[in-house]
Amino acid sequence: MSPEPGRPPVRHPVPDTAAYLTGRWSIERTVRDVRSGAAGSFRGTAEFRPDDAGEVLLHVEEGELTWAGTAHPASRTLRLRPRPDGGAEVSFADGRPFHDLDLRRGRWHTVHPCAADRYDGTFTVAGPDEWHLEWRVGGPAKEQLLRSVYRRL
Question: What is the pTM (predicted TM-score) of this model?
Fold first, then answer.
């Protein structure tokens, strides 16, 4: 069950981040430009599946981004390398490091510097079939708030 709008979900610890994420998820994301007040949304799916070598999980998102009344196809691919302790290292598709991820306590906060901007991410496991992700982006190039809800398919 999802919390009321604006309230964070209750934490649900998981013993193994990669095992929990493996599978297909629906995504509902809101995107807000804090400076201009413009808003948009993304709807689609995410799949966490082993790569051909079985060493990492590919995190593939595909869907439609609606911004300023216009819909566009959108996608991204990330790589999750599971760690023996139950956490994972997340990298971009080209191998550049992105952030660590550890959902064993049900919540994880991370920071990713991107040029002069700063990405603050909070991952919260709401239950066995739902997790939330919030990115707050700030800096000279942009100021955005992205909120995503992932539900297992």
Answer: 0.92
